[in-house]
Amino acid sequence: MRIPCPHCGPRGLDEFLYTQDASAARPKDGGAAPTEEWTDYVYMRENARGPRREYWYHSAGCHAWLIVTRDVSSHEILSVDLP
Amino acid sequence: MCITLHNSQELFAPMRYSAFSVITQALRGHTGWTPAWRKAEPAPHYDVVIIGGGGGGLATAYYLARHHNVGRIAVLEKGWLGNGSIGRNTTIIRSNYGLPGNIPFYELSMKLWEGLEQDINYNAMVSQRGIFNIYHNDAQRDSYARRGNAMLLHGVDAELLDSARLRREIPYLDYENARFPIHGALVQRRAGTARHDAVAWGYARAADKLGVDIIENCEVTGIDIENGAVKGVQTTRGAITVGKVGIAVAGASSLVGAMAGLRLPIESHALQAFVTEGLKPLIDNVITFGAGHFYISQSDKGGLVFGGDIDGYNSYAARGNLPTVEDVCEGGIALMPMLGRARLLRSWGGIMDMTMDGSPIIDKTPVGNLFFNGGWCYGGFKATPASGFCFAHLIAREEPHAVAAAYRLDRFAEGRLIDEKGAGAQPNLH
Known about the structure:
The structure holds two protein chains of two kinds. Chain A has one helix at residues 34-43, and strands at residues 2-5, 9-12, 17-21, 51-57, 65-71, 77-81. By secondary structure, chain A is mainly beta. Chain B folds into two domains: 36-88 and 196-265 and 357-429, 3-Layer(bba) Sandwich (FAD/NAD(P)-binding domain), CATH 3.50.50; 128-190 and 268-355, D-Amino Acid Oxidase, Chain A, domain 2 (2-Layer Sandwich). The interface between A and B is medium-sized, with 24 and 24 residues.
């Protein structure tokens, strides 16, 4: 798996750290059911097949945070954006 | 126990394996062996359907038929038996856990392993060759001592060796490694390995003998729910109405769970495993590296079987990437430099149900008559017997077995996590 970094060009997987799902919305404090919302955010996962938006960190490169859209069924990188 | 054969399938006499049957078959040119299980066709209705013909599903079906009177049982497998994690793992069995929610469960599994071959009349090559968890510094020794004491308090065997004693038993490790010197090991002598495929085949055969229909190439495509309870499943081989459904599809739990509207505390990750070319007998136990993630044993064919961490990002592709291969091999060579001389024969990947605390789930679901078994992370193989035993108990009696009572689906919301590593809700760190 190689990730095309917008700053550095295509680089090997070992330069990057995967962190988390970039689509999960962090709950706002307060709200109707804050405990339920936070439980869902922290512990529950969509975990579907197909394309997934993820945060990756170019730790051995430019230190940029990237939003990588990747097909988790094939490992194909579909797009890379800056947050 | 009464044995009933269903449908209009071809009947054959279930065969008992013994030294006598091997000798008589040898004299007859091995022409009299019968298939280990029937090729069952799906019936229109079952009292219990188990989704997933892996180790967990097959063991569940066997213990349901053996110990509980639940009527007709089917196991639905989308591919062939043994194609998933049950046939892809590194075959280690052990019960050297540290937390109260885990130790009694894994010890039940160890006890079931010890009697498994007699119980199911199948040679699963259970070999209690011992596991050595190597420690590299004083803090790690203290941590392992604490785990060993927790095991002893639960009646599990554990032994802490210093480096002098460890050197006598395993002389070839890199004791003087400048970065990761070896100070000793926590040992569980009753741990070991088992032949993974044989576990699936053995449970399948034993369940089939008790009348369970094992239906291969039958993928579940939908779960029918009426008034909040399961009524049936849709499959690639037609619709089946059901009394109860048990999901045992670790690796694909979220996909099958979604068919019933379940949102689970699980991510799917790829784990790689490796085997070298066949070598002469060398490693007569299971050894784990304490300064990284690496575990190794030698198969009876001679290959060194080893593995390490998951790749660290979500995946449904049953393969990993090269940085993890390098990392695993580095760990191995730091532990036993001679590994650098062995040639890697194969590597492969499997998909793990990674939960948010690193421990499994065996529980009812919010949907009536729907039960869930999954989240085995990369530790499902050793758990196979107890996983099936406890899941069968749950499905039949609708209450958890005492040793699996902590594996609740709601423990994340309740804050009752069972986190052996203390890594938090980061599945790629467990």
